[in-house]
Design goal:
two-stranded antiparallel sheet; 49% strand; mainly beta; 1 helix; SH3 type barrels
Length: 83
């Protein structure tokens, strides 16, 4: 069963609702300028850390096939990243 989570992001003064679902292709795009480690990397969401209120997602990066943990607020689905 694929789970999904609704997150509210504010980018350039615009408030936007983002749905992060397991198996979805996403880009790491943190709102904070201080988070630079994985900015711009494409990943696939494998699992969410909590059933009721997830904070982090277990992801597999597409460039090197490694697994990592990313804050859900830092993920943007690829279709929204193109706009």
């Amino acid at each position: 069963m694929n789970r999904s989570h609704h997150a509210i992001r504010v980018h350039n003064g615009r408030r936007r609702e983002v749905v992060i679902a397991e198996g979805e292709l996403c880009e790491v795009r943190p709102a904070s300028a201080h988070k630079k480690a994985h900015r711009g990397r494409i990943c696939r969401v494998e699992a969410l850390d909590d059933y009721i209120l997830p904070r982090r997602a277990r992801v597999r990066y597409e460039d090197n096939n490694r697994i990592g943990l990313v804050d859900i607020d830092d993920l943007v689905d690829v279709e929204a990243a193109i706009v």
